[in-house]
Amino acid sequence: MLTRSAVSKIGSLGLVVVLGLGMFWALTRGAPDFHVFHYAWNLVLHHQSAILYTDSPDRYLYSPGFAFLLCWLGWLPRSAALILWSLGKVALVLGLLKLATQKGQKHKVNLGIAAWGCLILARSILIDFQYGQINLLIVGCVTLALVPLLSGTGKAKFGFWKVTSGFAASIKLLLAPSILWSWNLSKQRSDRVLLASGIILATTLPLFFVGPQGLLHLLQSWIQGLQEKGMPHTSHNQSFAAFLHHCFSGQPTHVTALWGTVDTTLWIWSETTRQTMAFLWSLAWAGLLLHWSFQWKAKAIPNLPLLRVGVFLAVCPILSPLLWKPHLVFGLPLAIGLALQAIQNRKLLWGLGVVFIIQNLLTIDVWGPHLGGRIECYAPLLWGHMILIIMGWREIRSMLAKAKVR
Q: Which residue from 336, 260, 289 is spatially nearest to 92, judged by alpha carbons?
Protein backbone atom coordinates (compact mmCIF):
# COMPACT_ATOMS: atom_id res chain seq x y z
CA MET A 1 0.00 0.00 0.00
CA LEU A 2 1.23 3.46 -0.87
CA THR A 3 1.59 5.89 2.01
CA ARG A 4 -0.31 9.18 1.99
CA SER A 5 2.97 10.98 1.42
CA ALA A 6 3.69 8.87 -1.68
CA VAL A 7 0.17 9.43 -3.06
CA SER A 8 0.64 13.15 -2.43
CA LYS A 9 3.94 13.21 -4.31
CA ILE A 10 2.40 11.37 -7.27
CA GLY A 11 -0.47 13.86 -7.30
CA SER A 12 1.91 16.82 -7.24
CA LEU A 13 3.99 15.34 -10.05
CA GLY A 14 0.87 14.63 -12.09
CA LEU A 15 -0.31 18.20 -11.62
CA VAL A 16 3.03 19.54 -12.89
CA VAL A 17 2.71 17.30 -15.96
CA VAL A 18 -0.90 18.36 -16.67
CA LEU A 19 -0.23 22.09 -16.29
CA GLY A 20 3.02 21.89 -18.24
CA LEU A 21 1.36 19.91 -21.03
CA GLY A 22 -1.54 22.35 -20.99
CA MET A 23 0.83 25.27 -21.56
CA PHE A 24 2.50 23.34 -24.38
CA TRP A 25 -0.82 22.49 -26.05
CA ALA A 26 -1.97 26.10 -25.80
CA LEU A 27 1.10 27.29 -27.69
CA THR A 28 1.23 24.48 -30.27
CA ARG A 29 -2.40 23.58 -31.02
CA GLY A 30 -3.74 26.92 -32.21
CA ALA A 31 -5.85 28.04 -29.21
CA PRO A 32 -8.73 29.00 -31.56
CA ASP A 33 -11.00 30.38 -28.84
CA PHE A 34 -8.24 32.65 -27.59
CA HIS A 35 -7.90 33.93 -31.16
CA VAL A 36 -11.53 35.09 -30.88
CA PHE A 37 -10.69 37.00 -27.68
CA HIS A 38 -7.51 38.55 -29.10
CA TYR A 39 -9.36 39.62 -32.24
CA ALA A 40 -12.11 41.24 -30.11
CA TRP A 41 -9.53 43.12 -28.02
CA ASN A 42 -7.96 44.49 -31.19
CA LEU A 43 -11.35 45.66 -32.46
CA VAL A 44 -11.73 47.68 -29.26
CA LEU A 45 -8.20 49.09 -29.55
CA HIS A 46 -8.88 50.17 -33.14
CA HIS A 47 -12.20 51.82 -32.20
CA GLN A 48 -14.24 49.20 -34.06
CA SER A 49 -16.22 47.83 -31.13
CA ALA A 50 -19.50 48.36 -32.99
CA ILE A 51 -18.77 45.19 -34.99
CA LEU A 52 -17.63 43.20 -31.96
CA TYR A 53 -20.44 40.65 -32.34
CA THR A 54 -20.56 40.52 -36.14
CA ASP A 55 -16.89 40.48 -37.23
CA SER A 56 -15.10 37.57 -35.55
CA PRO A 57 -13.06 34.47 -36.47
CA ASP A 58 -15.79 32.57 -34.63
CA ARG A 59 -18.78 33.74 -32.63
CA TYR A 60 -17.88 36.19 -29.85
CA LEU A 61 -20.58 35.60 -27.20
CA TYR A 62 -19.10 37.24 -24.13
CA SER A 63 -20.12 40.45 -22.39
CA PRO A 64 -18.94 43.73 -23.95
CA GLY A 65 -17.09 44.72 -20.77
CA PHE A 66 -14.83 41.70 -21.12
CA ALA A 67 -13.47 42.98 -24.44
CA PHE A 68 -12.97 46.50 -23.09
CA LEU A 69 -11.41 45.66 -19.72
CA LEU A 70 -8.84 43.24 -21.18
CA CYS A 71 -8.23 45.05 -24.46
CA TRP A 72 -4.69 45.91 -23.30
CA LEU A 73 -3.79 42.29 -24.06
CA GLY A 74 -4.44 43.13 -27.70
CA TRP A 75 -1.33 45.34 -27.70
CA LEU A 76 0.79 42.24 -27.17
CA PRO A 77 1.62 39.76 -29.92
CA ARG A 78 -0.88 36.91 -29.86
CA SER A 79 1.70 34.38 -28.62
CA ALA A 80 2.82 36.63 -25.74
CA ALA A 81 -0.78 37.35 -24.74
CA LEU A 82 -1.57 33.62 -24.87
CA ILE A 83 1.35 32.87 -22.54
CA LEU A 84 0.02 35.39 -20.01
CA TRP A 85 -3.49 33.98 -20.43
CA SER A 86 -2.30 30.42 -19.80
CA LEU A 87 -0.11 31.43 -16.87
CA GLY A 88 -3.19 33.05 -15.34
CA LYS A 89 -4.93 29.67 -15.50
CA VAL A 90 -1.96 27.97 -13.84
CA ALA A 91 -1.99 30.58 -11.07
CA LEU A 92 -5.71 30.16 -10.43
CA VAL A 93 -5.48 26.35 -10.32
CA LEU A 94 -2.67 26.64 -7.77
CA GLY A 95 -4.75 29.24 -5.91
CA LEU A 96 -7.65 26.80 -5.70
CA LEU A 97 -5.40 24.11 -4.30
CA LYS A 98 -3.97 26.49 -1.71
CA LEU A 99 -7.45 27.61 -0.71
CA ALA A 100 -8.65 24.01 -0.41
CA THR A 101 -5.88 22.80 1.90
CA GLN A 102 -5.63 23.68 5.54
CA LYS A 103 -2.31 25.11 6.68
CA GLY A 104 -0.58 23.01 9.25
CA GLN A 105 1.81 20.17 9.75
CA LYS A 106 0.45 18.15 6.81
CA HIS A 107 -0.26 21.10 4.52
CA LYS A 108 2.14 19.96 1.78
CA VAL A 109 0.76 16.42 1.91
CA ASN A 110 -2.82 17.63 1.59
CA LEU A 111 -1.81 19.88 -1.31
CA GLY A 112 -0.64 16.84 -3.25
CA ILE A 113 -3.82 14.94 -2.37
CA ALA A 114 -5.92 17.89 -3.58
CA ALA A 115 -3.93 17.84 -6.83
CA TRP A 116 -5.57 14.49 -7.60
CA GLY A 117 -8.80 16.44 -8.11
CA CYS A 118 -7.10 18.12 -11.08
CA LEU A 119 -5.96 14.74 -12.43
CA ILE A 120 -9.53 13.41 -12.31
CA LEU A 121 -10.50 16.17 -14.76
CA ALA A 122 -7.15 16.26 -16.55
CA ARG A 123 -8.61 15.91 -20.04
CA SER A 124 -11.05 18.80 -19.64
CA ILE A 125 -8.28 20.97 -18.18
CA LEU A 126 -6.01 20.15 -21.11
CA ILE A 127 -8.76 20.94 -23.63
CA ASP A 128 -9.39 24.27 -21.89
CA PHE A 129 -5.70 25.12 -22.33
CA GLN A 130 -5.62 23.76 -25.89
CA TYR A 131 -8.47 25.98 -27.05
CA GLY A 132 -7.36 28.99 -25.02
CA GLN A 133 -10.75 28.97 -23.30
CA ILE A 134 -11.83 31.07 -20.34
CA ASN A 135 -13.58 28.45 -18.19
CA LEU A 136 -10.69 27.76 -15.80
CA LEU A 137 -10.29 31.48 -15.15
CA ILE A 138 -14.00 31.91 -14.45
CA VAL A 139 -14.37 28.94 -12.10
CA GLY A 140 -11.20 29.95 -10.26
CA CYS A 141 -12.34 33.53 -9.68
CA VAL A 142 -15.84 32.56 -8.51
CA THR A 143 -14.55 29.82 -6.18
CA LEU A 144 -11.94 32.08 -4.58
CA ALA A 145 -14.74 34.50 -3.68
CA LEU A 146 -17.44 32.05 -2.58
CA VAL A 147 -15.45 29.68 -0.35
CA PRO A 148 -14.31 32.43 2.09
CA LEU A 149 -17.90 33.71 2.25
CA LEU A 150 -19.19 30.23 3.13
CA SER A 151 -16.36 29.77 5.62
CA GLY A 152 -17.24 32.98 7.40
CA THR A 153 -13.83 34.46 6.52
CA GLY A 154 -14.88 36.76 3.66
CA LYS A 155 -12.79 39.65 5.00
CA ALA A 156 -11.23 42.62 3.25
CA LYS A 157 -8.37 40.63 1.74
CA PHE A 158 -10.91 38.75 -0.36
CA GLY A 159 -12.47 41.97 -1.72
CA PHE A 160 -10.60 41.68 -5.00
CA TRP A 161 -12.10 38.24 -5.60
CA LYS A 162 -15.62 39.52 -4.91
CA VAL A 163 -15.24 42.09 -7.68
CA THR A 164 -13.58 39.54 -9.95
CA SER A 165 -16.24 36.90 -9.30
CA GLY A 166 -19.04 39.32 -10.19
CA PHE A 167 -17.16 40.17 -13.39
CA ALA A 168 -16.35 36.53 -14.24
CA ALA A 169 -19.90 35.23 -13.64
CA SER A 170 -21.29 37.99 -15.87
CA ILE A 171 -19.04 37.67 -18.92
CA LYS A 172 -20.05 34.03 -19.54
CA LEU A 173 -23.52 33.36 -18.22
CA LEU A 174 -23.10 29.66 -17.39
CA LEU A 175 -22.13 30.62 -13.83
CA ALA A 176 -24.58 33.53 -13.54
CA PRO A 177 -26.62 31.67 -10.84
CA SER A 178 -23.63 32.07 -8.51
CA ILE A 179 -24.28 35.83 -8.43
CA LEU A 180 -27.53 35.38 -6.48
CA TRP A 181 -25.81 33.06 -4.01
CA SER A 182 -22.92 35.49 -3.53
CA TRP A 183 -25.41 38.31 -2.97
CA ASN A 184 -27.30 36.36 -0.30
CA LEU A 185 -24.08 35.34 1.45
CA SER A 186 -22.77 38.93 1.50
CA LYS A 187 -24.20 40.37 4.70
CA GLN A 188 -22.30 43.66 4.61
CA ARG A 189 -23.21 46.43 2.18
CA SER A 190 -19.56 46.79 1.16
CA ASP A 191 -19.47 43.15 0.03
CA ARG A 192 -22.52 43.64 -2.17
CA VAL A 193 -21.06 46.84 -3.60
CA LEU A 194 -17.92 44.92 -4.58
CA LEU A 195 -19.96 42.17 -6.22
CA ALA A 196 -22.14 44.69 -8.06
CA SER A 197 -19.01 46.53 -9.23
CA GLY A 198 -17.83 43.41 -11.02
CA ILE A 199 -21.21 42.95 -12.71
CA ILE A 200 -21.26 46.60 -13.80
CA LEU A 201 -17.74 46.31 -15.21
CA ALA A 202 -18.75 43.29 -17.28
CA THR A 203 -21.87 44.86 -18.71
CA THR A 204 -21.56 48.66 -18.79
CA LEU A 205 -17.84 49.50 -18.92
CA PRO A 206 -18.10 50.46 -22.65
CA LEU A 207 -20.37 53.36 -21.63
CA PHE A 208 -17.29 55.46 -20.85
CA PHE A 209 -15.82 54.86 -24.30
CA VAL A 210 -18.72 54.62 -26.75
CA GLY A 211 -21.51 56.45 -24.93
CA PRO A 212 -25.07 55.33 -24.11
CA GLN A 213 -26.07 54.54 -27.70
CA GLY A 214 -22.91 52.56 -28.33
CA LEU A 215 -23.43 50.57 -25.12
CA LEU A 216 -27.07 49.87 -26.01
CA HIS A 217 -25.99 48.61 -29.43
CA LEU A 218 -23.38 46.30 -27.88
CA LEU A 219 -25.81 44.88 -25.31
CA GLN A 220 -28.44 44.26 -27.98
CA SER A 221 -25.87 42.54 -30.20
CA TRP A 222 -24.72 40.40 -27.27
CA ILE A 223 -28.27 39.29 -26.43
CA GLN A 224 -29.00 38.61 -30.09
CA GLY A 225 -25.84 36.51 -30.41
CA LEU A 226 -26.80 34.43 -27.37
CA GLN A 227 -30.29 33.86 -28.79
CA GLU A 228 -28.95 32.74 -32.15
CA LYS A 229 -26.28 30.31 -30.99
CA GLY A 230 -28.68 27.35 -31.22
CA MET A 231 -27.96 23.78 -30.14
CA PRO A 232 -25.48 21.82 -32.27
CA HIS A 233 -26.34 18.12 -32.42
CA THR A 234 -22.75 16.91 -32.94
CA SER A 235 -21.33 14.22 -30.68
CA HIS A 236 -19.12 16.83 -28.98
CA ASN A 237 -22.20 18.32 -27.32
CA GLN A 238 -22.54 16.39 -24.04
CA SER A 239 -25.67 18.11 -22.72
CA PHE A 240 -28.82 16.24 -21.67
CA ALA A 241 -30.79 17.83 -24.53
CA ALA A 242 -28.14 16.68 -27.01
CA PHE A 243 -28.13 13.17 -25.48
CA LEU A 244 -31.89 12.94 -26.04
CA HIS A 245 -31.41 13.94 -29.67
CA HIS A 246 -28.51 11.53 -30.21
CA CYS A 247 -30.35 8.53 -28.79
CA PHE A 248 -34.09 9.17 -29.17
CA SER A 249 -34.63 11.23 -32.32
CA GLY A 250 -34.03 8.49 -34.87
CA GLN A 251 -31.58 10.74 -36.68
CA PRO A 252 -27.87 9.98 -37.16
CA THR A 253 -25.37 11.97 -35.10
CA HIS A 254 -22.47 13.82 -36.69
CA VAL A 255 -19.06 12.82 -35.31
CA THR A 256 -16.47 15.47 -36.14
CA ALA A 257 -13.53 13.06 -35.88
CA LEU A 258 -15.15 10.83 -38.52
CA TRP A 259 -16.30 13.65 -40.78
CA GLY A 260 -19.44 11.58 -40.93
CA THR A 261 -22.41 10.28 -38.97
CA VAL A 262 -23.27 7.26 -36.83
CA ASP A 263 -26.64 5.86 -35.77
CA THR A 264 -26.96 5.69 -31.98
CA THR A 265 -30.74 5.45 -31.76
CA LEU A 266 -32.02 3.58 -28.70
CA TRP A 267 -35.68 4.46 -29.12
CA ILE A 268 -37.68 7.06 -31.02
CA TRP A 269 -39.49 9.78 -29.09
CA SER A 270 -41.30 12.73 -30.59
CA GLU A 271 -39.62 16.11 -30.70
CA THR A 272 -42.21 17.46 -28.26
CA THR A 273 -41.37 14.71 -25.76
CA ARG A 274 -37.64 15.37 -26.05
CA GLN A 275 -38.04 19.12 -25.70
CA THR A 276 -40.34 18.69 -22.69
CA MET A 277 -37.87 16.36 -20.97
CA ALA A 278 -34.97 18.74 -21.66
CA PHE A 279 -36.97 21.67 -20.31
CA LEU A 280 -37.96 19.78 -17.13
CA TRP A 281 -34.32 18.72 -16.64
CA SER A 282 -33.12 22.34 -16.75
CA LEU A 283 -36.05 23.57 -14.65
CA ALA A 284 -35.40 21.00 -11.91
CA TRP A 285 -31.71 21.86 -11.63
CA ALA A 286 -32.44 25.60 -11.77
CA GLY A 287 -34.91 25.17 -8.91
CA LEU A 288 -32.30 23.30 -6.90
CA LEU A 289 -29.74 26.08 -7.47
CA LEU A 290 -32.31 28.64 -6.34
CA HIS A 291 -33.04 26.61 -3.21
CA TRP A 292 -29.33 26.29 -2.37
CA SER A 293 -28.80 30.03 -2.95
CA PHE A 294 -31.11 30.79 -0.03
CA GLN A 295 -30.56 27.75 2.20
CA TRP A 296 -26.78 27.20 2.17
CA LYS A 297 -25.24 29.55 4.72
CA ALA A 298 -21.77 29.88 6.21
CA LYS A 299 -20.71 26.92 8.37
CA ALA A 300 -17.29 26.42 9.91
CA ILE A 301 -16.93 22.72 9.03
CA PRO A 302 -13.62 21.81 7.36
CA ASN A 303 -13.94 21.22 3.60
CA LEU A 304 -17.73 21.75 3.64
CA PRO A 305 -17.60 25.23 2.00
CA LEU A 306 -15.47 23.91 -0.86
CA LEU A 307 -17.80 20.94 -1.43
CA ARG A 308 -20.86 23.17 -1.44
CA VAL A 309 -19.30 25.62 -3.88
CA GLY A 310 -18.11 22.67 -5.94
CA VAL A 311 -21.56 21.08 -6.20
CA PHE A 312 -23.21 24.42 -6.97
CA LEU A 313 -20.77 25.35 -9.76
CA ALA A 314 -20.79 21.82 -11.19
CA VAL A 315 -24.57 21.95 -11.57
CA CYS A 316 -24.58 25.33 -13.37
CA PRO A 317 -23.42 24.15 -16.84
CA ILE A 318 -25.76 21.13 -17.02
CA LEU A 319 -28.74 23.48 -17.25
CA SER A 320 -27.59 24.53 -20.70
CA PRO A 321 -28.41 22.73 -23.99
CA LEU A 322 -24.72 23.24 -24.81
CA LEU A 323 -22.20 21.28 -22.75
CA TRP A 324 -18.78 21.22 -24.35
CA LYS A 325 -15.84 19.29 -22.92
CA PRO A 326 -14.06 22.41 -21.52
CA HIS A 327 -17.24 23.23 -19.54
CA LEU A 328 -16.55 20.21 -17.34
CA VAL A 329 -13.76 22.14 -15.59
CA PHE A 330 -16.60 23.79 -13.66
CA GLY A 331 -16.48 20.57 -11.64
CA LEU A 332 -12.87 21.19 -10.61
CA PRO A 333 -13.55 22.65 -7.12
CA LEU A 334 -15.82 19.66 -6.41
CA ALA A 335 -13.21 17.15 -7.61
CA ILE A 336 -10.58 18.81 -5.39
CA GLY A 337 -12.92 18.80 -2.40
CA LEU A 338 -13.81 15.13 -2.88
CA ALA A 339 -10.15 14.17 -3.27
CA LEU A 340 -9.44 15.79 0.10
CA GLN A 341 -12.53 14.23 1.67
CA ALA A 342 -11.34 10.79 0.52
CA ILE A 343 -8.61 11.05 3.17
CA GLN A 344 -11.35 10.45 5.75
CA ASN A 345 -13.84 8.50 3.62
CA ARG A 346 -11.98 5.91 1.54
CA LYS A 347 -15.24 4.75 -0.10
CA LEU A 348 -15.10 7.90 -2.24
CA LEU A 349 -12.05 6.50 -4.02
CA TRP A 350 -14.22 4.04 -5.97
CA GLY A 351 -16.46 6.77 -7.32
CA LEU A 352 -13.54 9.07 -8.08
CA GLY A 353 -11.84 6.21 -9.93
CA VAL A 354 -14.94 5.69 -12.08
CA VAL A 355 -15.12 9.42 -12.87
CA PHE A 356 -11.41 9.42 -13.76
CA ILE A 357 -11.95 6.57 -16.23
CA ILE A 358 -15.03 8.17 -17.81
CA GLN A 359 -13.51 11.63 -18.13
CA ASN A 360 -10.06 10.61 -19.34
CA LEU A 361 -10.27 7.18 -20.97
CA LEU A 362 -13.66 7.00 -22.75
CA THR A 363 -12.28 9.20 -25.49
CA ILE A 364 -11.70 9.20 -29.22
CA ASP A 365 -7.96 9.50 -28.50
CA VAL A 366 -8.04 6.13 -26.70
CA TRP A 367 -10.66 4.19 -28.70
CA GLY A 368 -10.28 5.77 -32.13
CA PRO A 369 -12.81 7.80 -34.15
CA HIS A 370 -15.20 4.91 -34.90
CA LEU A 371 -15.74 3.33 -31.47
CA GLY A 372 -14.74 6.47 -29.56
CA GLY A 373 -17.09 8.61 -31.64
CA ARG A 374 -19.96 6.21 -30.99
CA ILE A 375 -19.23 6.21 -27.24
CA GLU A 376 -19.17 10.02 -27.27
CA CYS A 377 -22.72 10.12 -28.66
CA TYR A 378 -24.06 8.66 -25.41
CA ALA A 379 -22.78 11.68 -23.46
CA PRO A 380 -20.44 9.79 -21.09
CA LEU A 381 -18.88 13.05 -19.88
CA LEU A 382 -22.29 14.26 -18.71
CA TRP A 383 -22.87 11.06 -16.75
CA GLY A 384 -19.38 11.18 -15.25
CA HIS A 385 -20.06 14.77 -14.24
CA MET A 386 -23.36 13.68 -12.69
CA ILE A 387 -21.59 10.99 -10.63
CA LEU A 388 -19.29 13.70 -9.28
CA ILE A 389 -22.28 15.91 -8.35
CA ILE A 390 -24.13 13.07 -6.61
CA MET A 391 -21.01 12.10 -4.67
CA GLY A 392 -20.54 15.70 -3.55
CA TRP A 393 -24.17 16.11 -2.52
CA ARG A 394 -24.14 12.89 -0.52
CA GLU A 395 -20.90 13.83 1.20
CA ILE A 396 -22.33 17.24 2.16
CA ARG A 397 -25.37 15.57 3.73
CA SER A 398 -23.15 13.11 5.59
CA MET A 399 -20.93 15.89 6.96
CA LEU A 400 -23.93 17.91 8.14
CA ALA A 401 -25.47 14.85 9.80
CA LYS A 402 -22.23 14.12 11.69
CA ALA A 403 -22.01 17.76 12.77
CA LYS A 404 -25.52 17.58 14.26
CA VAL A 405 -24.68 14.41 16.21
CA ARG A 406 -21.67 16.14 17.73
A: 336
